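A student in our group prepared the protein record below, which I am reviewing. Thanks in advance; the entry in question is below.
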Amino acid sequence: MDSIPANRRLWNRISGAYQHEHDPRIGAAPRLWGMYSIPDAHLHALGDVTGKRVLELGCGAGQWSRALAAEGATVVGLDLSEAQLAAAARAMGTACYPLVQGAAEQLPFAADSFDLVFCDFGGLSWAPPHLAVPQAARVLRRGGRLVFNVASPWFEACYDEAAGRVTTTLRQDYFGLDTIAEDDGATSYQLTYGDWVKVLRGAGLVIDDLIEPRPELEAPNGYNETDPPDWAHRWPAELLWVTHKP
């Protein structure tokens, strides 16, 4: 399934509204993961990037990329949407880094190019993982790391489409998630825990850690309504995978 054209159109259309709503929070401080903006200092997923060559898959307006560039990484920000890349260019500031338009399932980079490939609800949420993960592994150098945050399948399985919120009731089949229809014919992707393991191992990656970020009781979700409000304090809303290429 080629979801690239529809996903590109969707993000070009919603980029301005998305950044207006979310950038004041995610752009306010460096290294914030996921729906609850949990600091990497609490999760210890990314590590020191000084002097590393880093690729962000789905950089959006570059909130992560510009922070890592300021830390001394050689960063490349990749995004499918030219509107998102334009937002990144406007927000770049003094820590300059290159921006590339492209898809996570068709990376326009040579093999063994990066020390770290990462994303936070980016390319590995919006590209077929069975295509995008091998691409990420291909462009990693030996010893390089793939680190990425995606929604937990339980979060998606409990999403009540009619009510527009996540509840405590299972609504979708866990084994039938796979592709998720988004607005304008776009598609996002969701795997079970077992399928993530198969895809990562199939790409030759070693799984070092699976972090299930747990927000504090009062932490707000900036993207979804949950019932109860402390849903993600009680059940895993996100999966933060830490892997490397041996």
Remarks:
- The longest helix spans residues 4-26.
- The chain has one domain: 3-151+191-245.
